[in-house]
Amino acid sequence: MSTPRVGVIGGGQLARMMQPAAINLGIHLRVLSATATDSAAQVIPDTVVGSHEDWEALKAFALECDVITFDHEHVPTEFLEELQNLGVAVRPGPHALRFAQDKIEMRTALTAAGIPCPKWKEITTESELVEFGDTAGWPLIIKTARGGYDGKGVWVVGSLAEALQIIGEIHAAGNRVLAEELVPFTRELAAQVARSPHGQCVAYPVVKSTQTDGICHEVIAPCPDLDPERAAQAQAMAITIANSLDVHGMLAVELFDTGTEILVNELAMRPHNSGHWSMDGAVTSQFENHLRAVLDWPLGSPAPTGPHTVMVNLLGKDLGDLHSAFRHIMARDPGIKVHLYGKEVRPGRKIGHVNATGGNIEDLLQRAWHAADYLTGVIDE
């Protein structure tokens, strides 16, 4: 049996964190990276430097792989369709990936499938905005249909004038505009599933996710105090979406829990920040199951290995050397797991995360946050 060659488009931390699973499974991982110093390029020897928007570079890279998958969703759909025409296995395929690339396409498909979503409307005219504002109520959420992530491309607008200015800028940039109601949620959840081309699907425990300035900062797995029936409902919703959109690989479904219903916020068709806990807290990490799924191998168990795992992201501060903090946090708490992404430290940038697994959630939160705060220089003791 020849060694499978999986090509990952994008050289960020998600591609980087696929490498340990690839090594364990004997998979040859390749990466198409924007630069030779990107996060994944530092640890994956078979790195090709090139742009995902350069057709010739993308084609040459893909033709040397058994299957192509992604670190991000920004590859032009027409390029992926052309790769498929050349016989390249693209997973997830462009027929599915477009729903993660375009929020209006996503809302249209989910609504047609009967999946609960916030009230929404594509805005092309002022009269449409006025009508939607009267229906959904102000303030509204305005989103650019393509290109937004980690809170970018999303605005909360309190007035018609403010909304019109932002919409004008989006339209001027050649993008479409999605307006949504501002959902009065009590917490944010995430449901992740892995699905293979032959239709096997496994669901991870539903987690609670907390955001800071639009960036996921804390995850508790499984979500505490979530009724088992509601957890099963969220998992079933994610499985339904994966099947109806024909997703191959990991699918993350970000959810609003209003206390009375669960609504879909966003989709990601790749490993996701809300699943980083699984690296230390699940039988099979999201990164291993993503590789298994895109190769159409049997999927691993998503079951947790302990009662709870807390993940806290390391968001960059004005601090240089993270390793200088290792002695303190490792000596203080040998159970803490640290994952660094090899990124230059910049304020607000995701540069790593820590995981803590155990039985007492409050204790896990204290441990994980202490480690994260010490690593990023928030505290010094």
Oligomer: single chain
List low-pLDDT spans: none
Shape: globular
Content-based structural category: alpha+beta
- How many strands appear in the DSSP assignment? 18
Helix content: 25-40%
CATH level-1 class of the largest domain: Alpha Beta
Annotated CATH architecture of the largest domain: 2-Layer Sandwich
Number of helices: 12
- Our count of domains comes out at 3
- One letter per element, helices H and strands E, the order comes to EHEEHEHEHHEHEEHEEEEEHEEHHEHEEH
At the fourth level of CATH, the homologous superfamily of the largest domain is ATP-grasp fold, B domain
The radius of gyration over CA amounts to 21 Å
CATH topology of the largest domain: D-amino Acid Aminotransferase, Chain A, domain 1
Residue share in β-strands: 25-35%
Nearest-integer average pLDDT: 95
Describe the biggest sheet? 9 strands, antiparallel
* N-end to C-end Cα span: 53 Å
